[in-house]
Amino acid sequence: MTTLSNHVPDPRLITAFAERRDGPLHRVNPWTKVGVVGALVLAVTVFDRLVLLAGLYGTVLVVYGLAGLPYRRLAGWYTLPALFLVSVAVPLAFLEPGTPIGGALGTPLGDLSVTWAGLTLFGELSCRSLTVVTFALTASMTTKYTDVAYLLGRLLPRPIDQIALLTYRFTFVMLETLEDLVKAALARGANFSEFWSNKRLYARILGMTMLSAIEQSERLVKSMEARGYDGDITLYGDVSRPPRHELLVVAGSYAAVVGYAALAVYGAGL
């Protein structure tokens, strides 16, 4: 399957992996995945040591591979988290006090240097963000659309769940429209290799995409109203309760994180 960019997750490719593959994680109950996501978010918030965060990230990477998902795609999709790290974590690494590593970097604002504490902070922020991103992609690439729609309907209040479902469905239409515009521009000799020299072309494509989105959304609303849509997309399907061993895994994950937090608080109080 072709994608517009190797650096942005393509929902069509994610859906294809979820619907057509049958790896070990595909057979895990969707409610279990939701519980593990919550435990991971809590863990990356509570853990304050680089060794623990790196171990957690390594575990998630192993799970990603065991699910039969491609590491090459994942490396390209790390571009957006990397932009976050460069814009947020790198400045914090320079501002963290401590023992400098190597020489200072001269700037108009003064000398800047990376300290061991700053390097540790950068590693912690990297592991935190990449852990959550990796498992979120893993869960979305191993959970079928009907299960995702059911979970959204149960977890999100109305009308937020309806907005999320319609946005998800309409994303595929917009991607096809954007691909058609890009192909048409390439057929006319356009060059997308340099952004700043082709910024007007990018602006025209974006404008055409927005206009097409407005027109198609209006047609979609009229067609749905003609079919009796009254603000509720009925979801046919059901996600059963997780089996006992999966419940034990989720409960154990939360217990481990809460136990670590309790020990950290108790140790700080001594």
Automatic annotation (TrEMBL):
Signal peptide: none annotated. The keyword Transmembrane applies. The chain crosses the membrane at residues 34-67, 74-94, 114-137, 247-268. The keyword Cell inner membrane does not apply. Keywords: Cell membrane, Membrane, Transmembrane, Transmembrane helix. It is found in: Cell membrane. Pfam families: CbiQ (PF02361). Its main location: membrane. One of its GO terms (cellular component) is plasma membrane. It is a multi-pass membrane protein. It comes from the Archaea. CDD domains: EcfT (cd16914). PANTHER family: SLL0384 PROTEIN (PTHR34857:SF2). This is Cobalt ECF transporter T component CbiQ. It comes from Halorubellus litoreus.
